[in-house]
User: Fold this.
Amino acid sequence: MRYLLISLFLLIVGCQPQEEERPNILFILSDDHTSQSWGIYGGHFKDYVKNQNIQRLANEGVVLDNAFCTNSICSPSRAAILTGQYSHLNQVYTLRESLPEGHPNIAKSLGSSGYQTAIIGKWHLDKQPEGFDYFKILPGQGRYWDPVFKVKEDWQDGYIKEGEGIVHQGFSTDVITDLTIEHLKKRQQDRPFMMVCSFKATHEPFEYPERYNDYLNNVKLPEPASLYDFGKETTGRSFKGQKLEKLGARWDNATKNPDKFWTSYPGLPYPLDGLDSIQKRSMIFQKLAKDFIRCGAAIDDNIGKLLDYLDEEGIADNTIVIYTADQGYFLGEHGFFDKRLIYEESLRMPFVIRYPKETMKGKRLDDIILNIDFAALLADYAGLPSQDYIQGKSFRENLKGNTAEDWREQMYYRYWLHSPDRPAHFGIRNKRYKLALFYGQGLNMYGSDSITTRPAWEFYDLEEDPKELRNAINDSKYVEIISKMKSELKRQRDHFKDTDENYPEMKTILDEELN
Assistant:
C-alpha cells in the first residue's frame, strides 16, 4: 500500500504544470551607435563596418526596423529605457539630471521578483543607481582609456576627484565587457539575472583600440547625399543645426590646447587649413566616419565575447540578448554631427533581440517600437503583471509575428534641451509622414539657452523624400494631411499627459499652433 501511495503521489506531481524557467536578460547598450553604422540596416557604410557579431545576433533573432527614441539625447533616453516613461514623467529632460529618489524602474521591478540585477559601464544619470544589486559605473561620460569606475562603497554624486574611484587598465569597451563576464561568473546560478552591459562607445571623441589604428586607412568612404547641405536655405528647414565644421574646430582646439580642452581625439593633428568649403567638409566627414566605425568595431568584438561566454556557460538558450543604442547620430547627413533632432538619423534606435525559445530567426519587425516599450517587454518576459508606471507596451507578441490590430500607427517625440541652433521641439511620425513644431523655448531646463526662437513647423513625406531634404510644410498638396496630423499630435500629447500646463510661456504658442 505504501508503494502504491508513493507511486500515486509521483504521478500526481508529474502531471502538475511546472513553472517555466524564467529567462536571463543580457541588455547591451551603447552610446550613439547609430543604425547607419551597423551594416544590417543597409546604407552607404554597410560594406565598410565590422559587424560580424551584430550580424550573428540578427541571424539568430529579430531586427527592429522602426524603433525610435522619445528624446534623442543620452540621459533622457537611458531614463526612458529604465522607467518606460517620457521625460516629463521621469523628470530627466536634458543632461546631468537624475531620476527622482524612489522613482520606479524596471530594475527594481525585476529585482523584487527575484532577479539578480547589475549594471556595469556608462550610467549617466548622476546619482547612485537604484534597483541594481550591483553596479560599477563610469563617472559622467567616463573616459576611453584606463577607465575609472564608481561603486556603492564611498559613493559620491556627480564627478569624482583625481585619484578617486577604481581604475581598470585598458580600452573601456574591452574593460566593461571583461567586468561584465567576471560579475556573471559570480552569479547565483539558481536565480535569473538582468545584466546591463553599458558601453561608453561610440560617443565623441570616438576613440578606438590600437588594433583598429589602420582600419580603413586607405579607403575613401562614400558620402551621404546631403553632406553638402550648407544651410537651411537649401532645404527649407527652420534652424541651423550642429555643423561638421564645429567638430573640425574642436579638433583644432584640442590640438592647440591639449591641457585645457575638455577632451582629446584620436589621429590629431588633422590639418584643415587652406581648403575650400567643399574640401573641408569632405575631410571632416572622412575622419569622423572612420573614427566612428573603428570605435564601433570594438563594440562588435565585445558582443562576440559576451555571446561566446553564454555559449560556454550553456545558458544561451535561456538568455534574452538585446543590443541597442540609446539613440541615433548624424554622420554627415545634412552636414551635421551629433543627435537631438527628430530627423531620421537621430530619431532611429537600432535594436536587435535574440531569444532562442521564442524569437524568430533572421526576421525583421516593421512595427513602430519606442524606447518606453523596452521596460514593458522585459517585465513581460520575466512573467510580471503589467507595471502601472510604464507608459510603453510590451512587443513580445509582435516579435513572434502576432502584432495586435490596435498597435500604434504613429509615435510622439519631444526634445527639451533648447538652443537657437537646435531649438526645442515636439512632433509625430507615422509610417509615411513626419510633422514637428520647433517651439523654441528653453523652459528653464538645465543647460537650455535663454534665447528663444520663433515657432516653426516642419513636415516631411518620408516616401517621396526619405532623406528629409525638403520641408514641405507649405506644399498645398499636403494641407489636409498636415491638418489631420496636427490633430493627432494634440491627441498624442494628451494621451501621454505632456500638456505643458506648468509652462505659461507655452500657452500662446500652443493656442496659436495647435488649435
User: Anything to note?
Assistant: The longest strand covers residues 24-30. The chain is about 30% helix and 15% strand.
